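User: Let's play a game. I give you a shape written as tokens, and you guess the letters that built it. Ready? Here's round one.
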């Protein structure tokens, strides 16, 4: 009896609200519906009208984004909880409190649940599983529910950002419900039905569907005309995956029988398959999506290869495929093809032996240790299936080779040029240097003010993404060395990062832009082979504090994060990686916690030994020093990597392997629902300790990735390590890597000198013929036309790339 009374109170309350207030949001929503629906009918084109009719027939028999309808919705349970008023009894008890609390997230979730239930029942009618004809009683409940919950949705305030539910979930449920009842909806539209409630439900479904085009409001000129190209540009919510992948734009356009909507959508889909970069950011069609370096951005300038960029590309292709054999058909342009190839080639560097690299999305801390297909395989399959005539014979062969290797989880792609699929590659739009071959994978994830970090989201995604773009350096042979241990990580000891210890002081945060460096210096030089040099100037800042950020989140201060400055560089010589640090200073010495540079924090899965001068030193659990008798040792994990430190640059370094308890649910709330989570994990941790108050401290460490044991004597030497220049070269004189932080500095190498005309990274590789020099502008200066390298008295002018490819390495013969 109490439930019934509650229902009648709520119904009376909201009927009164709708009848008397007719709030501004509801009026605005219906005015938009009438405007865009009428505008859609004004454009006449017999061929396009015929195509729309065919689309409508298709959508009446096929669900759109049907995968988004939760599988746990059972028809019998929905019907048991459904009143004749259209209200779901189990939702009614909490509805009034949720509405009055004005908690937009909860309102959105509540209304999404209601509309998904309506959609679920509507699908039963589409499949004719409710009987020979429409079950009139259930059909009436559907109409009433559409009106009741629809009024709640369209009456919500537009002064808050109505995201996910309002622009993705509810329009998808509404447009599918419309097409499930297609015959009844057409009867209304043709004036054959006089049922006032059915007419109102038809109108409401169109109002709700239009939210895919209107919500969230941008508070700019595009709100005045959402059926425009500019609606899908220059805003984080309206580019990349957020523009196309998650919105039901095409079926809504078809529901509206709107030629202008499909006109706009076709152009957006084709122009969206393009790349952006820091120096073309304002001119590129999308500010997010594919980047010129072969990776991609999402939610600002953060490297989210597997999220928004790939989703935007895949669904742009889906739209263009759906438009085939219609008056809207478009061919893939040369720019489309170049972008797609650049992207799936680039994606291969962020995937290794069945595993995506950690910290390229906000779901790394979701426990999922099982390998899977690379997501660009889906894109390649689409290209081979639907767009084969867009490519020449070599491109078709490459696509097929990619598919063949990807289906085996081994993207070897043998026979292609160094730097395309294997070797070393500098991702200049994302501050990343990657080395990849069949034996191992190394990622150096640097930072600059030019890029954003990695987002975190409390109760929604990863909550501790504080350090991934602070110089995170990962070493993998199998591809899953980190996915199983990050639930127990000391996050302040992220591999490769120089930071203040204090895991217990970190407070989870929602930060949609992550963290970056205050400084505009990050660069790597490589010709694509086994050698590379990279460096960056690090001083942490919250990327949400940049100008023009419209999705800051609500990040906590977390003082432990800030106040560390460091000049950090990396040198890859064959199977060795040398890491140097200089100028390491704690600018907030009053804060507790030592400053540490973590060498690695990885899965301990095989025997660990120390070696010095060819002799093994047994080690066990507990903390051990890298120094024995004043000399450094190699620390090796069997079948993995070997680590050592350089005593002349490193004062205090330690390693340990231990068993640690995991905190999977704390790192990502979705893990709370997973079974068989490992309660503990074995970790090998190696680090350099700079003390609590370092000033201009240094470090040097080496990681050997080759087979067997490293050489007794290192095959390279450090030539300089300070805040002006960091440099190293092989002892045979064939390879030299240098990071120049300032102009005017000189590097002396034996009898030769090396100088540059602008801050940059320089790699010199000699061979029997002569050799080559690779140079990268580390500040990505759009006004810089050339860098002059003076080497051994010879001036070598090197032209710098312009436009989208500014910041890319240039390699010339010596």
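Assistant: Ready! My guess for every position:
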């Amino acid at each position: 009896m109490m439930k019934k009374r509650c229902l009648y109170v709520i119904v009376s309350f909201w009927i009164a609200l709708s009848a008397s207030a007719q709030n501004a949001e509801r009026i605005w929503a219906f005015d938009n519906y009438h405007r865009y629906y009428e505008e859609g009918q004004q454009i006449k084109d017999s061929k396009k009208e015929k195509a729309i009719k065919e689309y409508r027939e298709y959508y009446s028999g096929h669900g759109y984004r049907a995968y988004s309808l939760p599988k746990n919705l059972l028809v019998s349970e929905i019907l048991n909880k459904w009143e004749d008023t259209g209200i779901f009894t189990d939702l009614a008890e909490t509805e009034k409190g949720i509405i009055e609390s004005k908690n937009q997230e909860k309102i959105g979730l509540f209304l999404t649940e209601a509309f998904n239930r309506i959609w679920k029942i509507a699908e039963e009618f589409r499949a004719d599983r409710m009987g020979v004809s429409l079950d009139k009683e259930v059909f009436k409940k559907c109409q009433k529910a559409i009106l009741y919950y629809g009024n709640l949705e369209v009456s919500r305030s537009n002064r808050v950002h109505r995201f996910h539910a309002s622009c993705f979930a509810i329009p998808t449920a509404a447009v599918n419900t419309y097409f499930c009842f297609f015959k009844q909806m057409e009867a209304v539209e043709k004036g054959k039905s006089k049922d006032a409630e059915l007419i109102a439900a038809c109108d409401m479904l169109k109002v709700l569907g239009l939210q895919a085009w209107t919500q969230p409001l941008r508070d700019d000129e595009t709100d005045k005309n959402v059926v425009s190209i500019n609606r899908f540009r220059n805003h984080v919510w309206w580019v990349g995956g957020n523009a196309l992948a998650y919105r039901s734009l095409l079926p809504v356009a078809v529901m509206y029988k709107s030629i202008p909507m499909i006109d706009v959508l076709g152009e957006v889909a084709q122009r969206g398959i393009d790349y952006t970069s820091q120096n073309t950011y304002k001119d590129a069609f999308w500010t997010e999506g594919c980047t010129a370096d072969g990776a991609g951005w999402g939610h600002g300038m953060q490297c989210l290869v597997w999220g928004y960029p790939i989703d935007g590309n895949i669904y742009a292709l889906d739209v263009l495929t759906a438009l085939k054999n219609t008056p809207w058909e478009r061919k893939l342009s040369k720019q489309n093809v170049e972008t797609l190839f650049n992207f799936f080639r680039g994606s291969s560097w962020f995937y290794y032996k069945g595993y995506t690299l950690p910290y390229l999305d906000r779901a790394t801390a979701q426990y999922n240790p099982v390998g899977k297909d690379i997501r660009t395989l889906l894109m390649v399959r689409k290209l081979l299936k639907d767009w084969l005539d867009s490519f020449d014979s070599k491109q078709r062969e490459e696509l097929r080779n990619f598919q063949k290797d990807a289906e085996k989880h081994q993207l070897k792609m043998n026979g292609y040029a160094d730097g395309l699929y294997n070797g070393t590659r500098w991702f200049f739009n994302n501050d990343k240097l990657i080395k990849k071959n069949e034996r191992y994978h190394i990622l150096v994830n640097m930072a600059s003010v030019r890029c954003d970090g990695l987002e975190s989201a409390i109760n929604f995604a990863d909550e501790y993404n504080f350090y991934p773009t602070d110089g995170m350096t990962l070493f993998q042979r199998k591809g899953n060395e980190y996915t199983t241990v990050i639930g127990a990580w000391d996050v302040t000891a992220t591999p490769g990062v120089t930071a203040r210890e204090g895991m217990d002081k970190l407070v989870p945060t929602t930060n949609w832009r992550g963290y970056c460096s205050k400084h505009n210096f990050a660069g790597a030089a490589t010709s694509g082979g086994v050698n590379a040099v990279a460096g960056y100037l690090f001083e942490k800042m919250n990327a949400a504090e940049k100008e023009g950020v419209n999705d800051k989140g609500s990040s906590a201060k977390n003082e432990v994060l800030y106040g560390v400055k460091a000049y950090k560089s990396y040198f890859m010589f064959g199977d060795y990686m040398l890491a140097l640090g200089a100028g390491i200073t704690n600018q907030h010495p009053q804060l507790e916690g030592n400053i540490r540079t973590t060498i690695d924090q990885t899965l301990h899965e095989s025997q660990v030994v120390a070696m010095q001068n060819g002799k093994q030193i047994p080690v066990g659990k507990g903390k051990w020093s890298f120094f024995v008798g004043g000399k450094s040792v190699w620390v090796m994990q069997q079948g993995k990597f070997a680590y050592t430190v350089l005593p002349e640059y490193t004062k205090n370094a330690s390693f340990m392997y231990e068993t640690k308890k995991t905190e999977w649910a704390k790192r990502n709330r979705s893990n709370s629902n997973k079974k068989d989570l490992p309660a503990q994990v074995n970790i090998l941790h190696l680090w350099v300790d700079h003390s609590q108050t370092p000033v201009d401290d240094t470090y040097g460490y080496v990681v050997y990735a080759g087979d067997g044991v490293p050489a007794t004597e290192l095959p390279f030497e450090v030539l300089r390590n300070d805040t002006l220049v960091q440099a190293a070269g092989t002892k045979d004189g064939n390879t030299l890597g240098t990071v120049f932080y300032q102009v005017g500095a000189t590097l002396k190498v034996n009898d030769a000198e090396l100088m540059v005309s602008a801050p940059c990274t320089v790699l010199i590789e000699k061979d029997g013929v002569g050799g080559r020099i690779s140079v990268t502008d580390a500040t990505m200066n759009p006004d810089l036309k050339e860098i002059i390298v003076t080497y051994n008295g010879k001036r070598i002018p090197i032209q710098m790339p312009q436009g989208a490819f500014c910041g890319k390495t240039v390699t010339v013969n010596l």
